Amino acid sequence: MGFDTVITNGTIVTAVDTYAADIALTNGKIAAIGKDLPTQNANAVIDARGRLIMPGGIDVHTHLDMPFGGTTSADDFETGTRAAAFGGTTTLIDFAIQYKGQTLRKAFDTWMNKAAGKAVCDYAFHCIMTDVSGGQLSEMNDLVGEGVTSFKLFMAYPGVFMLDDGSIFKALQTTSKNGALVCMHAENGSAIDVIVQQALAEGKKAPKYHALTRPTTAEAEATARAIALAEMAGAPIYIVHLSCNDALEKVREARDRGLPVYAETCPQYLYLSIDNFDVPGFEGAKYVFTPPLREKWHQEKLWNGLQRDHLQVVSTDHCPFCFKEQKELGKDDFTKIPNGGPGVEHRMSLIYSGGVAAGRFSANRFVELVATAPAKLFGLYPRKGTIAVGSDADIVIFDPQRKHTISAKTHHMRVDYSMFEGIEITGMPHVVLSRGRVLMQADRFVGRAGQGEFLRRATYTQVNG
Ligand code: URP
Ligand code: ZN
Ligand code: ZN
Description:
By secondary structure, this protein is an alpha/beta fold. The chain has 12 helices and 21 strands. Helix content is about 30%, strand content about 25%. An 8-stranded parallel sheet has the order 8-11-12-13-14-15-16-17. Strands 3-2-7-18-19-20-21 form a 7-stranded mixed sheet. Strands 5-4-1-6 form a 4-stranded mixed sheet, with no helix packed on it. α4 packs across α7 (about 215-235). The N and C termini lie far apart (about 45 Å).
């Protein structure tokens, strides 16, 4: 009996190593790594000459089929995971939302149903908690038992998602005991609401006012408060979609003190800026998401944070709404524009391009940011996030030279615009495998809806720092 698949002639890149070797895959796992592995009895041989072999990407922040802002995000679990696969991402962690008065179980069941039979690659869930006034705190332990080992809390969106500090503190006390990780949307929602109401009263209703009413100080203040609450509770904390240097400084200071504080940023904050709102008419709505785009100088600070491990993860916060009919809900009032942008397809290439090809950090650091650290922090390592014997055969054969210009005309996300339209990237996935099965090869999708599995995650493990 031979191997199912042997990948030959490639260069393996993990978070810690770069070396030439063949990889053999059997029963969805990596079965062997070595020089000149036997290919004669293999069902398939893939020649990876000139290409990098990396673990499949893990995007820990997506919103597929999510009701929000009076509509529902445009990608469901089939179209969203398919687009992810085109971009080399083979695991998503999405968010199951507990609405006020509901149990956490209800949220989990609802989102399991949304994904079942649709996802083309593996997926897991965080649970968004909007109400802890019932039995939800003790229910957090039940969800951890189901493999939902992280909880997103909001310090923004008063009346919708926002929790008060006492509730947040109680949730953190619970995770300090059950080993789960709180993911925090850190913006001071109460102060922002005042600024928003004042802007509306002054007739400032265009899309750019979404950004102008959410100052960086509101993000920095909430980030510092979240860290303080976590420190008091003795719990780790993970700051989601960090967008600006002010908040980054708070994370860096906490990590310098040795606290288990982690943060992610997203490609939009690395590539786009408030200047993107300088477009005609209502076009700026394409860039309405939260936290908003910042002044351009923040971008290099964030790249630097990724390089120095002040930031540990790049996710996308993929939350697509079509410009026509969805973003247009806010044509006369920016507060009615559904918040979110599409990005799941291009995370790997944007970060490889701006990080490795541009000389900011190594290919190993790239792998750490997009796969290994996400796997460790969210309880998937070493099943996911690395190339090792026994790990799932989630593999990207990546062409580091290939150039591509991003466009809505060619992307695979179910949305009618791209935030990154016209940006040229260097480095593209050539073949993408999920548990040993080819999902995408040479720009052709060959996977199947429903072949993705729900991942029961372990609790978080610390990453270096
Ligand atoms: O604007 C955004 N980010 N939409 C998705 C919800 C969230 O806060 O992550
Ligand atoms: Zn958020
Ligand atoms: Zn989000």
